[in-house]
Amino acid sequence: MKKVLTLLIVIVVVLVGCNQDLKANEEELLNFLEELKGVEYNVSKFRMYFDRYSKREEKFTEQFYKDFINGDVEFITPEYETNNLNESKFRKYTKKYSGLVFKIGRVLNNETIVDIKEAHYNFKVYQINFDDNETNGKEEVFYSSGYWNEKGIDNDGIYEVLNDSSEQKAPYYDYKGWLGEQVVEAEYVEKEKERTKDYNGLIKYKGRYYIYEILNWDTRIMISFYSWNKELNQVTCMVNYKLSLKGENKKSKSDEDEFVMDTESLYENMKERE
């Protein structure tokens, strides 16, 4: 009886700890967003990817930004998260996809993947209707980060969307159920799991799920939202907002040009990954 009670206490402590971490992360994000209120922003051309808002598109993007900044969205909590890929409770979700791996690499000649790095921490799984299709049930959206190998470290985090009813295989890897993925800048990087200034996560807004990514360069911010595009049948950037922060570090013209180049480069990289 004593062993059972001890085990129950341990489980409760772990669950409470996870909830506290999630709440702390959300509060950290909301505090950061609070500082952005009133800052001017531009909506990028990425909104051309919207597939169901037609004439309400401009109004929607303005309201979406306002509601996100104010925290008036639903932040999605993972079904489970761990730093151990082989943990039995996490394997309960991954075993549906035989051969599933959490790896990243460079593609040569569009056929060979090299410089492969494996994920080492921040494994999360969400069970949601990410593709906005009720007929095929919910998707498993897996997040992973902490990518490195003996040659170097990668600062990416990856959201991978899978559905066990799909026969589609992941590019360069032999497992079925793959629908798509989105690469973002990770919140934690390096082997020491250092906190970056960036944010990412999952939200639900007006009946639709989005991956959000916030890139923080101190004097400039880029907020992107990725979702399922039915027309393209893949995960794409649905809308992007750019903010310039003024003050002591007021940007010069060259800084503005660099910001445009950074944004365009990111756009091209996303197109390549898609």
Distance between the termini: 55 Å
The topology string of helices and strands comes to HEHEEHEEEEEEEEEEEEEEH
Given as residue ranges, the uncertain stretches (5+ residues, pLDDT < 50) are 2-18, 248-274
Structural class: alpha+beta
What summary fits the major beta sheet? Answer: 6 strands, antiparallel
* Number of discrete helical segments: 4
Helix content: 25-40%
Per DSSP E runs of 2 or more residues, the count of β-strands stands at 17
Beta content comes to: 35-45%
Number of domains: 1
Shape: globular
Overall pLDDT metric: 82
Rg over C-alpha atoms, rounded to the nearest angstrom: 20 Å
Q: What is the spatial order of strands in the main beta sheet?
A: 1-17-16-15-14-2
Q: Could you list some keywords that capture this structure?
A:
single chain; 274 residues; alpha+beta; five-stranded antiparallel sheet; 17 strands; 27% helix
Describe what you observe in this structure.
This protein is an alpha+beta fold and 274 residues long. The protein has one domain. The protein is 27% helix and 35% strand. The chain contains 4 helices and 17 strands. The strands form 5 sheets. Strands 1-17-16-15-14-2 form a 6-stranded antiparallel sheet, with helices on both faces. It has a 5-stranded antiparallel sheet with strand order 3-6-7-10-11, covered by helices on one side. Strands 4-5 form a two-stranded antiparallel sheet. A hairpin with a 4-residue loop joins β16 and β17. The longest helix is centred in the N-terminal third of the chain and has 33 residues. The N terminus and C terminus are likely disordered.
